[in-house]
Amino acid sequence: MIDLTLADAGAALAPDFTLTLSGKDITRNVSERLISLTLTDNRAFDADTLTLEIDDSDGMVELPARGAVLALSLGWKGSRLIDKGTFTVDGVTFSGAPDRVSIKAHSADFRGSLNVKREASYHNTTLSALVGLVAARNGLKSAVASTLADIAIAHIDQSMESDIAFLTRLAGKNGAEATIKNGSVLFLQPGRGTTVSGQPIAPLTITRRAGDSHAFTIADRMAYTGVIASWLNTAAPESQASSVTLQRKPTAAPAASVAHPRAQAPLPGGQGKREDYIMGEPSNAFVLTDSFNSKEEAVRAAKAKWDALQRSAATFSINLAMGRADLYPETPVTVSGFKRVIDAQTWTIKNIEHSLSDRGFTTKVVLEALLDNIEYEESISEG
């Protein structure tokens, strides 16, 4: 387990990076002019974003060509730099005075075929095969988590829909999150703390001393405790729609016991358990408006939505005083030194933002709740 504390930071440490443009090393030229470097590492189908602010007060900076490829490695001097991938330049701004050049690049070229609207139908395939087909026609590789790869797709239409939108919808219906990294379309099962190949990710511990600032957010509007999904038997169209309900099992009340005289006071309203505090009231169901083609598809979509609602019930962001280029989305996290319900919760990294400037190298991690100990009950209502 990695212990992230300020004790890890040596006073003599200095941030470091390497940067190439279309294969040419431009690190020295950029470092002498760099105002800021920001890298956002996302888990969901939002492309990772690299933003550079470069001083051009002497007018000597050449504007990079749109479509040029940047490659970044990031870390600290004296340590191995971490490869952060490649990024396609798709935005350039020249402003002043004083003159500066802003460059924005993404991990996928959204100006290309991924954004073209298509008409297509797919039959009798699997999730892995379908993702592979869409990726290949865009010149990309693909990888689908083993727990998702063999999901049967009897039929699905792509009607005037870009491949990006289609893959996003396909992921949402099957409990996945899609992303593009290093030329590959990845379908991950979020909140499991594993890589796309199924390997467990080493857990991380963050103490309060490691952060400059933090923010915890919880919203009742996201605290659903059940999901309802409906389907219509297309083989018998005269039948009424049937539905499946996933409802959170009520948490058993703890046995009565004598509290220690120095124990912390219970939470207001008797909500003493972390899952009760995060999830809210026990009878608030989210209704999916789509009508699905089969019971299996409806159940799968309900479970996917159930997982997404659990993860988004609460978020916790921490700005780390010492940048950590080796952190990635999906890393399991525990925290200490904050409120009791926050410290008791298990978290996973949703996205990461690395910032490099004259103020140093910092990393902001955005965490979401991992409620893997919550159980649900499944009930079917036949039409």
Low-confidence stretches: 1-11, 253-272
- The total of helices stands at 7
Distance from N terminus to C terminus (CA atoms, Å) equals: 51 Å
Q: Give, in order, the helices and strands.
A: EEEHEEEEEEHEHEHEEEEEEHEHEEHEEE
Helix fraction?
10-25%
Pfam families: Phage_GPD
Biased composition (Low complexity): 250-266
Region (Disordered): 242-271
Organism: Siccibacter colletis
What features would you describe in this structure?
- This protein has helices spanning 27-31, 127-136, 146-149, 163-173, 274-279, 295-312, 340-344; strands spanning 2-4, 15-21, 24-25, 34-42, 49-55, 69-76, 82-95, 100-106, 117-126, 141-144, 152-162, 177-181, 184-188, 204-207, 211-218, 226-231, 242-248, 285-292, 314-320, 332-336, 347-357, 360-369, 376-381.
- By secondary structure, it is α+β, with helices and mostly antiparallel strands.
- Strands 1, 2, 3, 4, 5, 6, 7, 8, 14, 15, 19, 20, 21 and 22 form a 14-stranded mixed sheet that branches. A four-stranded mixed sheet has the order 18-16-17-23, with helices on one face. A three-stranded mixed sheet has the order 10-13-12.
- The protein is globular, with a radius of gyration of 24 Å.
